[in-house]
Write a structure and sequence with these properties.
mainly beta; globular; single chain; seven-stranded antiparallel beta sheet; 23 strands; seven-stranded mixed beta sheet
Length: 358
Amino acid sequence: MTAVELAWFGCDLRTGGIIEDLPALKPSGALARKLGDTTTLQFDLQLAGAAANWDEATVPGSTILVAVDTYTDTPIWAGAILTRDAGSAQSVQLGAATLERYLDGRYPGDQFFLAADQAAVITGLVTPALTGGPPIVIDAPNTGATMDYATEDGDDKSILSCLKEVMGMDGGPEWTIDVIWAASHGGFQFPLRVRPKIGVQAATAVHFDFPGCVSSYNLTESYEDGKGASVVIARGEGEGTSRLTSSVYEATALIASGWPRWEYRFTPASGVTDPDQLNAHAAQSLALMAQGAQVWSVEAVASRAPRLGQDWGIGDNIHLAVETSPRHPQGIDKVARCWAWELDAGADRVRPILVEEN
């Protein structure tokens, strides 16, 4: 396989059009993406090798950086520039965040959905951001599942907060913002994809092997607070007896088999005032937490592993085959979903973060 080399472009945030190539741009760490959430990254731009129009191509708030895998010609990461520091030094320091962050700076207004398809709910919440915003293209076919959802402008909940709230409900849809070439390769578009589950969950998953393309892996298992519980209650904001409370959700089969009762109570981050929404959050939390968190961190040689953006991406099932290791002396075959990834092209390392779904 060929090593991952990235071409960097500074683009207009409103149109996605390329302002300037930025060959002197270097990320300070690994590129990363998470399903339904923001990631951030810092950059160094050496002025000695910077393109002539670097200043216009890196204005905070109005430009976006896009990385393209030169071997596959596939855009794999985009981040809106939020900070720029420069002065007497010979370099410029930039900070950027993936476009989920933009949705945290836009508000949905009054939105009321009754027995609406989940995709229609996401579409309605995001639509205000299409006015005066980046070229986000909504890719949201009907999911076949309906839901009720309401938010009022006076709640001051951002679009991102609402989308996290919807995704965090039991059976809630998943979403992510990708980056693709626009027509004629003159710029980029940003599809906001909505699906019951993002990615490909085929039985014949992309194969990572140890030893092989995988240089190391680690399985983190946790039953810490917020990661494991067999009894869950979601609470609304407020105090005392007037505080809205969900039903009690128990892992009855697990408890009946002898598992201890571990109780967890929480308030959804954005604040929920609807009882059905609280119940949906509690049910989803129990489904994720009943047997604790199990996360596989896989580090592979990028030039030997299946190609990010071409062979696999966020949300996809990945097959990890371990022949033998101190943790698994008899080996193990595990298929788990990629909920996040990191790419350090300079170090020739790619790291899918895999989560087992109970």
